[in-house]
Design goal:
Layout: E1 3-12, E2 22-31, H1 36-46, E3 66-69, E4 72-75, E5 93-96, E6 103-105, E7 108-109, H2 112-120, H3 143-149, H4 160-164, H5 166-170, H6 177-187, H7 195-202, H8 216-219, H9 227-240, H10 247-261, H11 270-281, H12 284-292, H13 307-322
Parallel strand pairs: 1-5
Antiparallel strand pairs: 1-2, 3-4, 3-5, 6-7
Helix pairs in contact: 6-7, 6-9, 10-11
């Protein structure tokens, strides 16, 4: 069996005694086929018994061992040490706790914020069958109906997408990718009756429309779930249900209207159409600063050449949307779609 000496640089932190996080370095002999979790277990058992981390299933099912490995959120139990070695293997493998969550100790983070957001946004199925009849009768879900939520059901709440989300980095009150994915999954479960109420929750402030479309959640999902596709479908459902009175919905509608009519964005009037008169007044200082730096959007925007072709495409999209009933189910592919968000 092939063996190599491998260095690990592990972030340590005990809030009760340490002023700030620091790093410990360990060098151990590792066989090919060993995972990061097994390496951590060896270090804890033989070198540093105080090293603290979470683990349970060791099979990529429970999600409890998620950490940042060389700056990327992954499951320690499914990440091979050999796959991380570069060059001569002398570069240490860096292991840190997940981002955007408070560190309890070393590699263990507090996941209560995720659980609280899931609870606040009703991330469960409220069955149509009356409670007194549960157990005496069942609500059958066909293979086709389950296929709609199959990929989203694979979420193990490991927190990798929460850690990688760029919006979470600037706004801890943001709803977060796993909660939006659960909302998609529950809203497309044929047994559920909370769709409209749940959608109102997720479209509120710090919710669905604040997603920055960075695609990091989808790129780093440990189960390869196309999370962004679910977020897009939730936005479509919000429009289908007439939930268009939020700033985010108005912003998206303004984009679509401009592209449909002239093929370009009319930036000058965008704040007014999104925020209204009073809300736009708050952006005047920003507009002045942009103007002083030469960032002045054109007052008059001419249509692009061949705008008729764009309008034809938009017409087809609108016709398809009208053909779908409000709250219609949308299929999430079993495998991730491309970063560009291709048609499903």
């Amino acid at each position: 069996m092939e063996r190599r000496e491998v260095s690990f640089r592990i972030q340590r932190y005990n809030p009760q005694v340490d002023r700030a996080p620091f790093y410990d370095n360990f060098r151990i002999a590792v066989e090919k086929g060993i995972t990061i979790l097994r390496a951590l277990n060896y270090i804890k058992e033989h070198l540093e018994p105080r090293l603290t981390f979470r683990s349970f299933c060791q099979a990529g099912i429970c999600g409890s061992c998620a950490v940042r490995i060389n700056g990327v959120s992954r499951l320690a139990c499914t990440t091979q040490v050999w796959d991380l070695l570069t060059g001569g293997g002398d570069e240490p493998i860096r292991i840190e706790p997940l981002e955007n969550l408070e560190v309890i100790r070393d590699l263990v983070v507090d996941i209560d914020p995720i659980m609280e957001k899931l609870k606040r946004n009703q991330s469960w199925v409220e069955p149509a069958i009356p409670e007194e009849e549960l157990g005496r009768r069942e609500h059958r879900v066909s293979d086709g109906e389950f296929e709609t939520i199959n990929a989203a059901s694979d979420c193990i709440l490991c927190g990798a997408c929460y850690s990688e989300c760029s919006m979470m980095g600037v706004n801890r009150d943001y709803i977060s990718p796993p909660v939006l994915l659960k909302a998609f999954r529950m809203n497309n479960d044929t047994r559920d009756t909370l769709g409209c109420r749940r959608l109102r929750e997720v479209t509120a402030d710090n919710g669905l429309w604040d997603c920055a479309h960075c695609y990091k959640c989808m790129e780093h999902c440990t189960k390869k779930i196309p999370i962004m596709d679910g977020i897009h479908r939730l936005r479509e459902e919000a429009f289908a249900r007439g939930m268009t009175h939020t700033e985010g919905a108005r912003h998206a509608q303004a984009f679509f209207d401009d592209i449909r009519h002239i093929g370009r964005l009319r930036e000058v009037t965008l704040p007014l159409r999104t925020k209204g008169v009073l809300g736009s007044l708050g952006m005047v200082p920003l507009a002045v600063r942009m103007g002083l730096k030469g960032r002045r959007p054109p007052l008059l925007v001419k249509p692009i050449p061949d705008i008729e072709r764009v309008q034809e495409i938009c017409g087809r999209l609108e016709a398809n949307r009208e053909g779908e009933a409000a709250g219609a189910q949308h299929h999430l592919p079993l495998h991730p779609a491309s970063r560009s968000g291709g048609v499903l």
